[in-house]
Write a structure and sequence with these properties.
Elements (H helix, E strand, L loop, with lengths): L1 H50 L13 E7 L10 H4 L4 E7 L2 E9 L3 E8 L1 H47 L14 H50 L6 H28 L8 E4 H15 L4 E6 L4 E5 L1 H17 L4 E8 L2 E5 L19 E2 L2 E2 L3 H12 L2 E6 L5 E6 L4 E3 L1
Helix pairs in contact: 1-3, 4-5, 6-7, 7-8
Length: 414
């Protein structure tokens, strides 16, 4: 923005200078033509008058002028150039080899007088003036460009400071006394927007918390009744299966509610601890396979003694969602967890992501060619962002889906 403002001011300045310079040069050229005509007129009149008494003194004493005389009734002498010999009485301009000459032709009772004036000096002065004017205009435009850039920098720097304060935590008002009117209008608008956003977020968080609290009691009662039903002796197998299905659905509803609550809040790491990666991943995998047994094996390509400094609850949520997602889409084979430098990857043995899904992997409840996505990867992205980590997803060379979390400097070695 600074450069655009400065360039616009410099362009306008250069345009104004150019217009003024063109007008000045036109006036100068016109005055120079009048001056040349006056010199020619005075000189030829003087030469004609002197010729009557002292012909030898009638010729101009400058190398730029040549006087020719053709007596009436005679042919032009051999030394008179043909391009001027037959010019009519008056003032003329001719070109010889690219050089300009002004010619004055006069007559009296005895002869025709032709005065040829080489105006090269005048043309040189005009060209020098053009060069000086163009150089001065360019220099002035450069000065204006630099000055405009510096002045625009003051406004841009204030805008940058205002933009930086927008992202700072806290409720400090952006509008301050002493601000320019334009900046104050922007700051006031941003303050009003932040206030509306905070109010909307507070309402959403309160609604989610109240809904979760209100649902937890009946869900707990439903789960308890289902557990008691499943524990009854001599219960038909079909009824026991339905009771266990009710228990599983209640657990999924609770997990979904907790996920929505977490997504609605700012998931900040509360307490960082050194978490050993291999035991943590193995524990999460064991819990998942108990609930969802499949002929799928987990391979850990993680160096012994590797750890990460993270919030235990948030890191467990990441591992649980990554492994659960990999297990859900893998029917048989091997899931591989790899730590390469600071990059922790989970690769499944399923069909991988559809090409149309890759841009929406971390969207909530996105419906793609292979069905609807849940909240798992959206939660992973949310927590990684809050923890300062980078997460990406794609298809591995083996064909399965691969999700990579770059843990940055959080990785430790023991």
């Amino acid at each position: 923005m600074r450069l655009r403002i400065a360039a616009a001011v410099a362009a306008l300045t250069l345009l104004a200078i150019a217009a003024q310079a063109v007008a000045m040069l036109m006036i100068f050229d016109e005055k120079e033509e009048e001056f040349i005509a006056e010199i020619l007129g005075q000189q030829i009149a003087h030469s004609m008058a002197v010729w009557q008494t002292a012909p030898e003194s009638a010729f101009p004493n400058t190398p730029d002028m040549q006087l020719y005389r053709i007596a009436r009734g005679t042919q032009p002498a051999a030394g008179i150039p043909a391009d001027v010999a037959r010019l009519a009485v008056g003032n003329h301009e001719i070109l010889r080899a690219g050089r300009e000459f002004h010619v004055a032709v006069r007559e009296d009772d005895g002869a025709r007088y032709i005065l040829v004036y080489d105006v090269e000096d005048h043309e040189t002065r005009l060209h020098e003036l053009i060069l000086i004017t163009a150089s001065a205009g360019g220099l002035l435009a450069l000065v204006v460009l630099l000055a405009g850039y510096a002045l625009a920098g003051g406004l841009a720097s204030r805008l940058e400071r205002l933009a930086g304060r927008v992202g700072e935590p806290g409720d400090t008002a952006l509008a301050e006394p002493g601000m320019e009117r334009e900046l104050l209008a922007i700051a006031d608008a941003l303050d009003r927007y932040r206030q509306r956003q905070q109010q909307a977020l507070a309402r959403e968080q309160a609604f989610a918390a109240n809904l979760s609290h209100e649902l937890r009691t009946p869900l707990t009662a439903i789960r308890t009744d289902a557990e008691l039903m499943a524990a009854l002796p001599d219960l038909p197998e079909s009824v026991a299966r339905r009771a266990n299905r009710v228990i599983g659905n209640v657990d999924r509803i609770n997990a979904l509610g907790n996920s929505l609550l977490l997504l609605g809040r700012e998931a900040r790491p509360a307490l960082l601890e050194e978490i050993r990666l291999r035991p943590a991943i193995a524990a999460v995998w064991e819990a998942l396979t108990i609930a969802n047994p499949k002929p799928v094996h987990l391979r850990l390509d993680i160096p012994e003694g590797s750890a990460v400094a993270a919030d235990p609850a948030l890191f467990d949520l990441i591992l649980r969602n990554l492994l659960d997602n990999a297990l859900r889409y893998s029917e048989a084979g091997e899931i591989v967890c790899t730590l390469a430098g600071s990059r922790l990857s989970v690769t499944d043995c399923g069909p991988g992501f559809a090409a149309a899904d890759l841009a929406h992997v971390f969207d909530r409840f996105y419906t793609g060619p292979r069905g609807r996505h849940g909240l798992g990867l959206a939660l992973v992205h949310h927590v990684c962002t809050a923890s300062g980590w980078q997460v990406s997803a794609g298809n591995a060379t083996t064909g399965g889906a691969e999700v990579v979390v770059d843990l940055g400097r959080s990785v430790r070695r023991f």
